[in-house]
Each structure stands twice: as C-alpha cells, then as structure tokens.
Write a structure and sequence with these properties.
Number of helices of chain B: 17
Number of domains of chain A: 1
Number of strands of chain B: 2
Number of helices of chain A: 10
Order of helices and strands of chain A: EEEHEEHEHHHHEHEHEEHH
Radius of gyration of chain A: 18 Å
Shape of chain B: globular
Number of strands of chain A: 10
Helix content of chain A: 25-40%
Order of helices and strands of chain B: HHHHHHHHEEHHHHHHHHH
Shape of chain A: globular
CATH topology of chain A: Rossmann fold
CATH class of chain A: Alpha Beta
Largest sheet of chain B: 2 strands, antiparallel
Oligomer: heterodimer
Strand order of the largest sheet of chain A: 6-7-8-3-9-10
CATH architecture of chain A: 3-Layer(aba) Sandwich
Distance between the termini of chain B: 58 Å
Radius of gyration of chain B: 25 Å
Strand content of chain B: under 5%
Helix content of chain B: over 70%
Largest sheet of chain A: 6 strands, mixed
C-alpha cells in the first residue's frame, strides 16, 4: 500500500540516546479522521514518538511521512506550518499573558518577525479567538491572566491554542492527567467535538478515557509496537495483559 | 496611522508617563541645571539607550546580555573616528612626522592611515556605520548563538567574554584604536565646535530627541504581537516554537534592536563627552548598564530611563565623597533591588505610589464635592431662587 493514503506513515523509526534505543524500529499508520491512542508502561517511548513527529527530537533512522511529506528533515516551525499540532504533557501555556493573548499568539498569521511586528487584531482574529474560547469553556475568562486558571482550564487552554492553528494532525500528550472526574468528562466531549475532520494521536493512561475516545490503540513496550488494533482486541491480547494491563 | 492603532500604542494610562518624562528631560532639567550638570545628565541619558534596549532584550525576551557595552562602544568609536579625522587635518597636525593622521597613530610609528579608517572621512558613511557596524556584529553573535539554541546563563557569559575580548583588542591595537586612552581631543563636527556651551545645549536636545525616538520604537515593539511573543518565549520557548514560530529569529531581532539602541547612545556619548575609550566597552560598564535597567525596572522602558538617571546621580554624588566605596554600594544596590524589588523602581511606583496617588485624587474629589467645601456654583443658587419666589 502506498504511504500516500495515510495522513501519517511512520516507518522503521529509531532514535538512540547514547546507544539506548528509546524508539526501536517502530512503524504505524494513521488514517484520515482517525483517533489513535498510544498506551504503554512508563518508559515505553510514547512521548518520544510525539517528540520525533513534531521535530523536537531528531530521528536516528527511519521515516515519518505526513501527507507524503518527510518530516524528519524539517524544522519544528515548518512542521507546524505543514499542519501538525502538539500538546505537551504538562499544560504549556503563557502564564503571564491573558487567555485572549494566548489564543491570539497561536492564531496562524504573522509568524515572521515583520508579520508579528505589524500584526493587527482585526475582526477575523477576535472572532476566531472567541469561537475557540467558547469551545474550550473559557469564554468568560478571555481577559484573565492564564497563570490564574485551574489545572484543568490550563489543559483546555492549550487544547484551544492547538485548535486555533487548525492542524490536520493533532497530538495530545496525556490530556486528562490531573483532571477531576467532571473535567475528564467534559474533556472527552471536547475531544469528540474537535476531532471531527482531523486525525488525532493521543497518549493516555486512563483506560476508561481511552475506551471512550479511541478508534484504534497502539500498545508500545520498550520502544516497539507490542500490539495494535481496536480496544477490544488489544485488551484481550495476552502480551498486553502481561506487560501493561495485568497489574 | 489610524486612531485605533494610536490608542493601542499609547493607552490613556501611559500618556501621563510620556508627558512627565518629556517635561522633565526637555524642560525642567534644562531650565534648572547649569550647563556642566546638564551635560552630565546628557551623558547619563546616553546610557539610558542601552537600558531601554535591555528592557526589550532582558525584561521582555529573557535574553540577559552582559556585553551591551560592546555595541555602545562600537557606535561611540564610529562617531569618534569621524571626529578624530576631522580634527587631524594636515594643518593642525603639521608638527607630526606624518601630518594628517590622528596623533596616536603618529606616536605609534604609523605612517599612513589604515584602510578601515578611510571611509570615516565621509559623514553619511559614519552615520550609517554607527548603526550598521554594531547591529551587524550583534546579528553575527545572535545567529551563532540563538540558531544553536544557546541561551540563559551561557549566553550571558559569552557576551561577557566578547566584551572582554573587544576591550583587549582595542587596548592591544594601540596604533589603530588609540589604545587604553581611547580616541581623545575631539573638537569639531563638520566645522561646528562641539565643546562650546551652545553646542552642548543643542547636543543635549539632539540626544533627548533620539532617546524619545528609541522609546517610541520600544513602545511600538512592546505593544505589538512581537512584544507578547517575547513574553511568551521567556516562559515557554517550546510552546512558541510548536505554535509555528522560528524562535531564534525573534531573539536575533530583539538583540539587534538592543544593539542599535546602544549604538545611538554610544555615538551621542562621544559627541557630548568629547572622547571614547575602552573603559565604556568592557565588562564593568556592561554590567553597570544591566544594573541601571534592573534598578529602573526591567519591564518598564520609562523605569529604565529613571533608573539610569538615579544610579548615575548616586554614582557621581557618592564617588565624589567616597570613591573607593562606590563599587560596593552599587553591588549592594543591585543585590538589594533584585532581592526586594524584582521589578525595580517601576514596580515600586506601580505597587505603592500609584494606588496612593489615586486615593489622594479620590479624597480630593470627595472633599470638593461635599456641600460647603465646594466652590460655589450657579446650580444650587438658581434652585433656591426657584423654591422661594
């Protein structure tokens, strides 16, 4: 099958840190509109995979093709421009700026030095910011300094910052970690709503949450794929039960 | 420029600061100080250019440079080279073994003008060089550092090393640079005597004009999205990068801008003080400039100007009476400010003075609006007339 049919095709991906292979000959493919969840024990290399896709870490060998474009040779900002968005594990927002300003910075316009100097806050920007703020339940906090938000709200804000970029591929690293039960439920709704029309890769430990959202699940162990398929299939795979779900 | 963008550039709350600073520097000080003291203030204000640049670089962008003296010095040396060539005409240097070259070259057995001095016969070239030389140098440093993601303490140490290297180079190349004495005995600018009192007044105002212009540019950058991006980068560089920005290009820009500001300050220093020497290039002056910025408040462009004036005034006063204690006092001041008032004078003003002013203004308004206290107006009187016909 040609790799062109997939949104993301990862093949033979390997990264070695001083001889330790954090990701070892990993291959997986993400379809258009698919929600893929990566699970696995600590140190399995899940976050490293996201780092490799978004360019934060350079691959030792292998290829990552996004809509047929090779990402491994591109700079981080070029990867973002091509349509890949990434949320970090700990809420990574600009604490000194307001919610509005956080979202505005993420709006995909005026990304060069001159563009940023002469950027104008016009109706289009304001409308986009307000729309996203409503989606992430922060429409009443637009002018609050982001540092004052609750942990859950910060997570939503970062998701909002990705949304406003309108990425084709969204990567979320533990989006519900540290959230209350009510916040988790709302986040699941939020994800179901924002994943329409784009592909998503999620790393998560919360099994209930994974069952709620995943189309397919990839189980990683020691930098390799242990098992892949629907949640049902993965759950009944004896290898997965042994290394991950068993305890 | 539209009304809306003017409003974002000068919010109502800032207008007062602009007016107060403009009045203080442009009217009050020139009227109350004699020309010797005013010239001294003019000299201090040339350091304020550096401090304003540091507000953007360090306060906003989180890039601490301990080598801003390099750019101040390069700007100052470019100006000094032009002035020196003008004062070294064959007529006034005829007693030298090679007339027509600067005196220090003659003392160092140079028999002709070095090639890189030649273009400084031209005033337009000099004006361009004052900005271009330091900015290009800053660009090279910034590209080399920021593209490799060198930042924080490492960057600060490297800038300090560069300041040290440049000082050693200038002192070592005595024949080309005037060595440790610097370039001295500067007299005229295109035939205009810069040592006269009237020239000092004019230069003070030229300096004032350039400083206000730099403040305007700084304000524009601060209020633009680039200003918010700098704040964002200071805390979460990765987030900015993964929002699609090339972080290094923004750091390069703001570092070059800071260098250009410093260069203008350096050139104005040479004009007002009449010489340039390596003692304004090295580590000590560079760190002093960071202290001016920290004392003023590293997030406030106005604070930077007041901080510079205050520290320099204290330096002059103290070092006249206790020359050997001054360095310790300054060190203590720096530590004290960083520990107790991390946002400097501007922070103290915002936190204590402004609320107090507002409450005083509020009391005054209440007092005036109480019946009996108010200035008699026509309103109540005509009402009374209406009640009692």
């Amino acid at each position: 099958m040609s790799t062109k049919d997939f949104v993301l095709a990862v093949e033979g991906l390997t990264v070695s840190f001083d001889g330790f292979k954090a990701v070892n000959d990993l291959s997986f493919y993400v379809d258009e509109g698919e929600i893929r969840v990566i699970i696995g024990p600590n140190g399995a290399g899940k976050t490293t995979v996201l780092d490799l896709i978004c360019g934060k870490t350079k691959a030792t060998s292998g290829s990552i093709k996004f809509r047929g474009k090779e990402l491994t040779k591109m700079t981080e900002h070029a990867i973002v421009h091509s349509g890949v968005g990434r949320k970090f594990q700990n809420p990574s927002i600009y604490e000194d700026l307001t919610v509005f300003e956080n979202l505005e910075i993420s709006f995909p316009r005026g990304r060069s030095v001159a563009g940023a100097l002469f950027f104008r806050r016009d109706a289009e920007v304001v409308q986009a910011v307000e729309e996203v703020a409503e989606t992430i339940f922060l429409q009443d906090q637009l002018h609050t300094t982001a540092g004052l938000l609750s942990h859950g709200q910060k997570q939503w804000l970062e998701i909002g910052m990705l949304l406003i970029q309108k990425p084709d591929l969204l990567m979320l690293d533990e989006p519900v970690a540290g959230m209350s039960v009510a916040e988790r439920k709302r986040t699941a709704e939020l994800l179901n709503c924002i994943t329409k029309g784009r592909s998503v890769i999620v790393i998560e430990h919360d099994m209930q949450f994974v069952e709620d959202i995943a189309h397919r699940v990839t189980v990683m162990h020691q930098g390799k794929t242990l098992s892949e398929g629907s949640m049902e299939r993965v759950k009944s795979d004896p290898k997965v039960v042994e290394v991950y779900l068993g305890h | 420029m539209s009304r809306q963008s003017l409003k974002t550039l000068f919010p109502a709350s800032d207008i007062t600061y602009w007016i107060i600073l403009g009045l203080l520097l442009g009217v009050v000080l020139p009227l109350t100080l004699d020309i010797f003291r005013l010239n001294l203030v003019g000299k201090y204000l040339t350091y304020a250019f550096v401090a304003v640049g540091l507000v953007l670089c360090w306060g906003y962008g989180g890039i601490l440079s301990l080598g801003q003296g390099v750019f101040f010095g390069l700007g100052g040396y470019c100006m000094a080279m032009f002035l020196k060539l003008e004062s070294s005409d064959p007529e006034s240097t005829k007693i030298q073994s090679t007339p027509g070259i600067p005196d220090f070259m003659d003392w160092n057995q140079l028999t002709e003008l070095p090639w890189f001095w030649e273009p400084f016969y031209s005033f337009p070239f000099t004006l361009i060089a004052i900005i271009a030389v330091p900015t290009i140098f800053a660009y090279i440093i910034a590209v080399a550092m920021f593209k490799r993601r060198v930042g924080g303490v490492y960057f600060a140490i490297i800038t300090q090393a560069i300041a040290s290297i440049l000082t050693i180079l200038i002192i070592g190349q005595q024949g080309y640079t005037g060595g440790v004495n610097g370039i001295t005995d500067l007299r005229t600018l295109m035939g205009w005597d810069i040592r006269s009192d009237s020239a000092k007044y004019i230069l003070y105002y030229v300096n004032f004009f350039f400083l206000m212009s730099c403040l305007l540019v700084a304000q524009f950058v601060r209020k633009s999205k680039l200003g918010r991006l700098l704040v964002a980068m200071r805390g979460r560089e990765d987030r900015v990068r993964f929002s699609g920005y090339d972080v290094s290009s923004f750091k390069i820009f703001v570092f070059c801008l800071g260098a250009a500001f410093s260069a203008v300050g350096g050139a104005m220093f040479t004009l007002q003080v009449g010489f340039m020497s390596p003692s304004f290039v090295g580590i000590v002056p560079s760190i002093e400039m960071v202290i001016f910025c920290a004392v003023g408040g590293r997030l406030s462009i106005f604070g930077a100007v007041y901080g510079t004036l205050l520290v320099n005034w204290a330096k002059t006063t103290f070092s006249e009476s206790f020359p050997e204690l001054w360095l310790f006092a300054m060190g203590a001041l720096f530590i004290g400010v960083v520990m107790a008032f991390p946002s400097g004078l501007a922070g103290v003003y915002k936190k204590y003075v402004e609320p107090w002013l507002i409450s005083v203004a509020g009391h005054a308004r209440n007092f005036l609006s109480k019946p009996g206290n108010a200035i008699p107006s026509v309103g109540p009187l005509s009402k009374q007339e209406g009640v009692s016909p």
